[in-house]
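quick one, two chains, predict together pls
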Amino acid sequence: MDNFLSILLHLTGTNFLAILLMGFFYFYIKKRTPLPPLYTIGKIIPVLLVRELLFFGIGILNEFVIAEDKLPVYPLDRIVYIGTELIIIFILLRWYSQYTGKKSIYTPFIIINLILVVMVGGDSVFHVIYNITFLGKIYPTLFFIVNYIILSAFLYSVSEYNTPNPSHIMGTRTTFVQATMFLNVAAILLLGAFGQSYNTPFMRLIYLPAYYLLYIYLIYSYIHFYERAEKQRIQYLQNDLNSVFDFMQNLGSAIAEKLELHQILNFITASAVKSTNAQAGSILLIDEFDSMLKVEAVDGVFPPPYQVPDRVKVKISRLQDYFKSQPIKLGENIFGEVAQSGKPIFIKNTTKDPRMKQNTQNDTLFVSSFIAIPLLVSKRIIGVISVIKRERDRVFTENDYDHLRTFADFASLTIDFILTYMELIEKREMERELGIAAEIQQKLLPRKLPAMKAGTLAAFSIPAKGVSGDYYDVLQFKNNRFGMVICDVAGKGVPAALIMVMIRSILHLITSAEKNAANVVTWINRGITGKIDIDRFATLSFLTYDENTGEVIYSNAAHHPLLIFRHKTATIEAIDTEGLPIGVERTAKYGQKRFKLSKGDLIVLYTDGIIEAMNPAGQQYTYERFTNLVSNNANLPPDDLIVKIKADLGAFVGNAPQHDDQTLMLMKVN
Amino acid sequence: MSEVKLLVVDENSKLFDTTGMFYKEFDSDFRQIRYYTLLVVQKAPAEIKEINLLEQQISEIIKNAVKHGNKCDPKKKVKVWYYFSVDKAHLIVQDEGEGFKDLEKWNDFNKKRINCFVKQNFDEMDKFVSFKTNQSDDHDSGNAMFAAVEYWNGGVVFNKKKNGIAVLKTFPKKKHGLDMSSL
């Protein structure tokens, strides 16, 4: 009966209670903190359960089945304890390796414990050591102490720089080491000096449950660290948010000051360095022309993460110049890899990655930890942002990496926005300049042609988009005399428009005193040639017409010859005078011709844009087609003739874009 | 630079196809070369950034036609076909001269020049700085075509008579970023 009670006591005792408690915590915490290392620790529970059941079985065997004199010399409970304890040690090792990722940690344990197993195995047959009173009882415990000392050394090697999420190990290791040492030293005393064995009520009801409390502590602490990690995560997100917000605010004011890409890239790089506690950072962008990565911003000393010539290594400044000046092909070196794959690269410890081999020596190239994130906008890669650490034993944490990834998302959008905006501005500026030129040109053209007593004037000028080089004008002098000018300035945009303004000013200024056509052209040429730094040229025809006498005085600076449709003969005459284009030679001489117009005669002045107008097939309108049209319709009033010419030009050109200004001026003698 | 670019003679080259090109005829007046050049270049779209370089290269080719081709003979004309877009510049210049007789000599000369550069033999290279013939005068730098073969990346081709030259330059399209699906 006593025996039965004692067995019952064993079954309901603190040992089982402790295991029950452990199981309860395990399942409770597992639900809230689903972490793989916790599952590993949980495997201790079935091992302990098996151990207790075996102890119980051995107890029954010893009490009821085996006669006292037949009891084995080497107790079974010791074998059970040693076996289960070894399993537990290996579970703890597995737990540790889950954190550190280290795989080759088992060797010392296997060697030590093989010796232990051989000793115990040999002892249970030959009883050599067991019979040495004190040592025989405690030597397995000594082996366990060695096991735990090595394990402790492992645990104490863990730091935030070599292990992700090390807080659980770092938080529990002190308690763990102290408790295992205390309990094993206690075991030496209890087993060696106080005659206890593992299956005695004291050991099973007091000592072992105390041991199990340690595992309960390990399991229970998970919830604590999980919550703390959660809090840190929230704190980190908050910091992330704050830093992005700060970044936005500063960037906003940087942009407001001046939209200068490099300044903004430098600012982004500096922000990335600051927020990841890095030593240096850089931004590489894909070049807008040749699809190569080019270093656009560097903060701090950033050694290239690839092989460099030896001569470059000797000085930091050379290294920096080299880094900034070397374009990188996609797929070439680690930056090219990031850009080509669009995937980030995080090399926590450079000594463990062959790609960083050149950066691990103790020289100017040294980098201890490296992160490179692609700058992506939707599916377009615009560059790479990278940060490095350059201190021994200092590496980036997972948090730094996560932070830079968030940051890179934001940075890519910002850079893309600025690039797009700058392209837009550039385009706008170009269009604006052309717009200004077109506006100047339009303002120079006469709004209304003067009325003649015995003649009719008509003109049109259609500017081509972005060209604006044609100019015509009619000046009215005293005594029914008129001056007519047509001019085609080479070049385009504001410079061409300026030439036009100059020509017009000179013309208006001198014709008040000087009416001689050749002299007028000569003066214009002198005024333009060599006056401004850039070469500017124009062809120009100038003529004066006296209504009283019908006399025309004409001078030409290499413009298309003047056409006269003679009413009498119904033919077209082309009249030219000697002379270079305006702007070629300051001393150029210009000839002039005098002739009379009769009733019904028509004079025609035009620019390149008319006869060189091109249809979609690439054919030109031609001089012939133009003069035929004029001859065949010369009886029409000038306004109607212009409508006719415009219509024919339009029909010929079709939907081909107009590439040059088209200007035409007609005067018919009534 | 190490790849030796040559002047090619190929009457049937695609570069001589004048379809859709603008056309102008100029007098062989040396004084007006800059003006002619400007007349041609004004057709270039504003998007072309290095317009001055383009202008200079076109000017050299017209200058060769006026000076070395037509020997500035006022009776002889220079015909120019030209076409520009945002991504290319295409030019054909033909004179009424005897043609570039020393073309092969020039190719040979350029090959030697580049070999010196590849071997970093700058003493030797000194002899190949300037290509001169007995027709050259002191105003000829003798190196315009070295630059031309580098600049006109779409080719420099002569007609059979070697008095017509067709050149093509392609401009890279400006863009920021690359489509990942193209990689």
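Chain A touches chain B through 46 residues (CB under 8 Å).
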